[in-house]
Amino acid sequence: MRSLVDTLRERHELAPNQYLALLTMHDPQVVEYLIGQAREVAQQQFGRGIFLRALIELSNVCRNDCLYCGIRRSNRHVARYTLTCDQVLDCCEQGYQFGFRTFVLQGGEWGEERSQWIADLIREIRQNWPDCAITLSLGEHPRETYALWRDAGADRYLLRHETHNERLYSLLHPRELTIQHRLQCLEWLKELGYQVGAGIMVGAPFQSLKAIVEDIQYLIDFKPHMIGIGPFIPQSDTPLGRFPAGSVDLTARLYAIMRLAIPHALIPSTTAMATLASDGRCRGILAGANVVMPNLSPVENRSQYALYDNKAALGAESVQGIKLLEDELASIGYHIDWSRGDSPRQ
Ligand code: SAM
């Protein structure tokens, strides 16, 4: 089994049944070998510096009805909010003072009538903080909208493909959403020159390990700059709210596999990891992740962006708790890298 890890590290690719073997193996020494090899590769690429992205949760208004997501359109328990332009600029100012050089605007998916408002906001941020990277995570839109935002100054776009498996995609999403369109959006984003992030939830209801293997293969083919992978966590007001959460161990194992497959990828140790286990963020980093995304949203809105139950948004998970994060990273021999943290290969 160790030889599979060595082959993945050398050739960056395995056969489907070999990924399956890595995902299912039980021998703790080989699991540790996989994780250790991935850590070594991450350190070769990025040293022991962890890139930060300040996350601004722009709005919990969403036109979609994804069955797993707490801010889905039909969840009547959500108090909806949208930040004003001034609120977002205040967040950026605060983040900049803390030392952040990347802002991520994430939110529910809006109709195209609001696209110009977002373009104007991007332009303001670009003008005020020209040395910062602007990342968007605002869902699926026409190519022209992505082009408008790119022209306004956006650099990066996060759009998890969620699952490459058509059947699973249809079990997790309403009929009007298709994996074909999701993948088309990712292609457009790449063509338009964004640094692009794709990824999945681990342990999503009905997900098989074979489906995860398909995702690994898709990610290796597509070669996104960023790979966003986090465990599924149920949100009690959603149709999938009674399913169990995904596994931190399996998610870390997947970080390790993706690190060996695409050594230069930017891989966040996600908030969902920190939510499920107090050491989840560190376990992700020790398995090859190299990015953390602290929350910079106004504190009063954070509980309203409840994608899943008990989502971590304070302490080391927040911009205000950056000292805690620094200490946490130092305890495992890492430090914050305050640069924009661009993809080493663009
Ligand atoms: N609307 C944008 C989109 O669709 O990409 C960005 C916001 S969306 C809420 C961000 C990500 O949250 C999704 O890609 C999904 O993977 C994740 N997410 C949503 N519900 C989740 C849950 N219950 N557990 C874990 N992750 C979840």
Architecture overview:
It contains 13 helices and 11 strands. Helices cover 42% and strands 11% of the residues. Helix 2 crosses helix 9 (209-222) and helix 10 runs parallel beside helix 12. The strands form 3 sheets. It has a 6-stranded parallel β-sheet. The protein has a 3-stranded parallel β-sheet with strand order 10-1-11. A two-stranded parallel sheet has the order 7-9. It is α/β, with parallel strands linked by helices and 346 residues long. Residues 68-69, 106, 108-109, 137-139, 159-160, 162, 201, 230, 232-233, 235, 272, 307-308 line the site of S-adenosylmethionine.
Distance between the termini: 33 Å
Strand content: 5-15%
What global shape is seen? globular
Individual helix count:
13
Question: How many E-type strands?
Answer: 11
- Bound compounds: S-adenosylmethionine
Biggest sheet record: 6 strands, parallel
Summarize the structure.
The chain has 346 residues and is an alpha/beta fold. The chain has helices spanning 2-11, 16-24, 28-46, 85-98, 115-128, 143-152, 166-172, 179-191, 209-222, 248-261, 271-276, 280-286, 322-331, and strands at 49-52, 54-59, 102-107, 133-137, 156-158, 195-198, 201-202, 226-227, 230-231, 291-292, 335-337. It starts with a helix and ends in a 9-residue tail after the last strand.
